[in-house]
Amino acid sequence: MRLASAFLMMCFACWWGVSVDHGGIPRANAASPNIILFMADDMGMGDSSVYQDFTGNSSAEQVATPNMERLARMGVRFTDAHTPSSRCTSTRYGLLTGRFPWRSRLKHWVLFGSQGDPLIEADRPTLASLLRDQGYATGMVGKWHVGLRYRQSNGQPAAGWEDADLSQPLHTSPLDFGFDSAWITSRSHATSGPDAAKLAEPATPPRRQRKRQSEATATAENNVGPGHIHGRTVMAASPNGKQLRATGDDAYVWHDLGKRHSDHAVEFLESHLQDATTATQPFFLYYASNSNHSPYTPSEFIAGHPVAGAAVTKSGAKMDVRHDFVYENDVALGRLLDWLQATPDPRSPGQPLIENTLLIFTSDNGAEINSPVASGPFRSHKGSVYEGGHRVPLLAAWPKGGVGDGSTDTPGGTREALVGLQDLYATFSEILQVELPDNARGERGAEDSFSALAAFQGRTALTRPPMFFNDHKQSKQDHAACAVRVDSPTVQGQAFPGKWKLFFTPSLIRTGTPLPTELYNLSEDPVETKNLLGEKPLERLVAFLTHEAKQHRNAGGYRLNQAAQSTSRSLHFTSHRGDPTTVAKQVAGQRTAEVTLQNSQAPISDLTVICTAYGANGNTSCELTCTLAGLGVSTGASPACDASEAIGFQFSHSVVVESVTLVAGSGQCGGFYTIGDKAPSQVYCMDADNDEQDQSGNVSDLGVVLDGEVLRFDSSPFMGVEPQGEWSIAKIVVRVLNAE
């Protein structure tokens, strides 16, 4: 086991290396725009006065956001923009990767705890790596919340918060996902560390002071989080275990975060221009603010501009602390606009940076409160697949690129096109004229991203693929329900004009089985009050949307859906009442077994699958087993796959792996899978706990396994430190790729 663990650690180290080598990266084209992506937290459309005419909020209740209005006048505003999920972790994953977040292991909710294992796979490209590879300097400030990994005191990866040594540099941070620089909080501000302002020791009598000092120590030792992280460094780490320093410049003070993020953003931009080696490169800044997630802790000032107590309605009345926190985003945005307008562009002498900078403002999901003001006219709010949970502000300006004219004296443009934040990956790729990853050749990346550049520039956009939204708290037993939207489809020659949104039970995301529950036409019913499911004239439409949802959900990405045959093929390994399936009979008792799946209707009629058992430490005297639960290996403590055993699959043709069903039973859902030489990914099981053990369901969206590659499921501890797996493989479902 020690040799096996050492080998695994070497493999993982290759994928999760700590160094960033920029050698050989091409210089960006002189016309490539700088990009600033500003994402607020928990901000509904009604939280910006840009949309007051659209939401219908009165001036007596509408918070004034003058800098957002300024950006909209310079550029455009979108009225039908959406997050891919109604919660923050998932949306951030989708934004950064161009992939629907439920294709990751996280089927709903957010990453919990002080860490949360990195959700983005080690070799998956992100917006930052896309831009860095094209010569951009890349920086981030603010809320990360897609997972970190700490180190133990011996420098090895930590399994979690409990064995983490905060004095060690982080094993995994934004620097591993394309960012050159990062000043972050691990999650939302209140869950990223104890508020040092509450731990301060006032001038009080000694007895009282000792009591407060004891309270400070206890609070700091709670499993809250690491406070400020710069790159890989926990800035307030102390010699006292997980206790953070409560004084000094790096003390984690909640109400200082808005100012701190803004200062670091300008620091990144100015240092970029002051360095002669980088000044001629474009920059990318991902500004993910903590505001306005509760608790509401606005800064007193940002760059001398008052924030706390400064929010007012459009009619001039003072507002509450929540709106101060909303207003903090406006002040931070205004500072960036001022800096861009005042700073000469070294790549375009005589022009300010604002001319060739694409500045985008949006939010990670709808408002966190159920308020008709914050959500505008839309139903529900954060955590819901109704429109109020995922329809968000989206503002953009790029004068040189035709996204607005840059003038604050014009009203700006309004775009009604349907766009999603996961579309930014393909949009940036089109701007840079970079090909998207070839998913059909096994390349990971941007599986669900559709370029919205035409919509940004006011041109006619192409018909987009279906758009999904997930995480629905109104699905009481399991929030992994979702909805899919398709606009004005034609079905078997019949046109269905409108904006059609069909809801499904969690079974679509969990197992790929579509069961519709609600249907709305947003063109006529944007508030989603009239459920049209069951109306006979719409039966053909519902059947079409259901089929489209199933195909796109199971294919692993919309371009893979186009590249693969429409018919799925399955290998069932479970035994039913002691009677093994045909496949089980063929493989049981052998180390390597060959199975052929036939489909006379498909262009490729025969698909051969080679199944192989791998024992621990290279043990070859092992056999495949088949039980009521499914496929396992014979040499471990049970007939399941355990004790660092593994099972591999090779296919005679390239396939899209729709899903693999792992059943833990009385075992444990640990381990990982690999495809060829790609980075390992954690497994999850059909019978795992929804929240505590990642997310239950089929292992899905694995992508393409090319002819000759090995898809391997390994029960060894992920990263060499996490729980070992004990599970059986019940079923594999694939679709053969069409011949090129």
UniProtKB/TrEMBL annotation:
CDD domains: ARS_like (cd16143). Residues 33-433 form the Sulfatase N-terminal domain. Residues 188-229 are annotated as: Disordered. Keywords: Calcium, Hydrolase, Metal-binding. GO terms for molecular function: arylsulfatase activity; metal ion binding. Its EC number is 3.1.6.1. It comes from the Bacteria. PROSITE patterns: SULFATASE_2. Pfam families: Sulfatase. Belongs to the sulfatase family. This is Arylsulfatase. It comes from Aureliella helgolandensis.
